[in-house]
Give the backbone structure.
Amino acid sequence: MRLKAALKGDLKKHMKREYKRAEYAVTRAVGEASDGLKMTMRRQVLSAGLGQRLANTWRDAVYPKGTISTRAAAVVYTRASKIMEGFDQGTTIRSKDGFWLAIPTPNAPKRIMGKKTTPANFEKARGIRLQFVYRRNGPSLLIAKDMQPSYKRQTGELRNFRKASNRTLRTGRGLTSVVMFWLVPQVKMPKHLSFKKEAEKWNGKIPQFILRYWPDE
């Protein structure tokens, strides 16, 4: 239909116009596919319970930037590639030292001195030594002894645990031992993401997107 219309008029003019339409259609199609893949990956991250902040690390870019082209291409990527690879491939995580992998319990603070909580920086910040407790069945433990619970004044809700004061140590009142870390040989991350499968699906939609943006006159 397009060739027949061109033969009825100025061929050069019609071909130039048709080429512009092709550039527009291809660029818009590639952009829609890349945006679709990006949003799909963001939804997968949210469904996996990894949070909006991590979901937003998925980005896309269409090239050439700022113009249209029949050779348009797109890149969909994440700024947290190592984390995403773990959930995409079901990676097994082991300790760097080859021994135990320490996982903070809900009793441990989320961050210490602006960094992720580890046994080393916990001991340094609190001025205590964690006690190792081996368990044959289930994870072994790192326990903080002689800790004192801290409660919110308004609600009485448990806030955290702190090192007991000298007075409390003398009286022994309110002292408790708290499990701060679980120790496991390794952790296998669940496979929640499927980037390759989704990329193939959205790539396969590009031809129909091109036809949508490049209709017959």
